[in-house]
Amino acid sequence: MDEEAKPELYVVGAGPGDPELITLKAYKLLQQAKVILYDNLANKQLLDFAPKNCEMIYVGKQPYGEYTPQEKILELIKHHAFASGQVIRLKGGDPFIFGRGFEEVLFARENGIKTYFIPGITSMQASGFEDIPLTHRNLSESVWAITGTKKDGSLSADLRLAMQSNATVVIYMGMKKLTEIAATYVEAGKGTVSAAIIQHASLPYQKSVKGLVKDLVEMAEKDKLTYPALVIIGAVVGIANRG
């Protein structure tokens, strides 16, 4: 690497799954990539856009299973940025929405690496493939995006706040919290609010189920839905069935 050139990190959103749902900017960047660190949720077909001599390193995190420690990922970013001059960090969905992308940006800057951000389509935006608009006039005036599992393993307390409005509630990484989510709504007298689970959003093998929030666990078990999946709660879930 040229001593005068500053190493670069590009944090790139891979989109919800369909490889055609990345930005043109991301596509062009992948075409001239030197090193790509890619996540579990980034579609592997995106790697086909990269040059044959590009080094591709898997640093994914299987839900509730094997994973690459974040410390190791940061170490790889630093090493390859200085060794090759450029690293692309390809992350599923949008890296700044429950993707820890900004943590990696801050780390890179602290280590003298110039950073760039290319947003991606986050998975909740793929709800439209199931006729679920995130907002709709007279039904939902806002959207709450909530993590189903915080760092300490608990369900975000923001859920109870979101329930007090007519907002559409989108829960990421919530499949292991379905019982708790349903119970929270039932306890608040809101068990009959419409809800959906969407697995593998935007991909050919996408699966989904719609029903009531109180029945989330049964819905998932009956249709054999598991992670990666989104839980969407609110009146917009059933809008396509209105007369």
Give a description of the structure.
With 243 residues, the chain is of the alpha/beta class. It has helices spanning 24-31, 70-84, 101-110, 158-162, 178-187, 216-222; strands at residues 8-13, 35-38, 55-58, 86-91, 114-118, 143-147, 168-172, 194-199, 207-212, 229-233. The strands form 2 sheets. It has a 5-stranded parallel β-sheet with strand order 3-2-4-1-5, with helices on both faces. A 5-stranded mixed β-sheet has the order 6-7-10-8-9. Helix 4 (158-162) links the parallel strand 6 (143-147) and strand 7 (168-172). The longest helix has 15 residues, at 70-84. The radius of gyration is 19 Å and the shape is elongated. The termini are far apart. The model has no long low-confidence stretch (mean pLDDT 93).
